[in-house]
């Protein structure tokens, strides 16, 4: 998948300025595709040059004008072509997993440092999960039958929630394994 496809999906959901689009990536699209603001603006320019999006200047009171982007028929056709193409499983690259395997060649002090890193990493994932759950409560609290867009957005969010829960369970296993290898008599048992 390219950043262009994520932008096309977002703009089909709702036209937006580059700034608004970047905030969406920070808030929700970033659940499955991350991009810097600079990358987004660079791709927006290229997509406009390729006639996949078009921009309209919108005046703002006491602020500079903004350009609101929307998808052109050519952009929609490009997205549909991509949607109909088969998806290949992604290759997983996980730096922490390699470090954990490498810990077999380190001493107890090195494994203790790794244990601290895994604890920090786990706290980060707990925070992401909490954010996803808060977003779910905020955006999908209405149990009324959702439209297709809301149903599909929610299923993607539920995938993120399931992923974070799986990562947390795995990290708990890693922590238990590291603690079993080098028990610390001053650390209370979990």
TrEMBL record:
Keywords: DNA-binding. The keyword DNA-binding applies. Residues 92-179 form the Transcription regulator PadR C-terminal domain. It holds the Pfam family Vir_act_alpha_C. GO terms for molecular function: DNA binding. Residues 7-79 form the Transcription regulator PadR N-terminal domain. This is DNA-binding transcriptional regulator, PadR family.
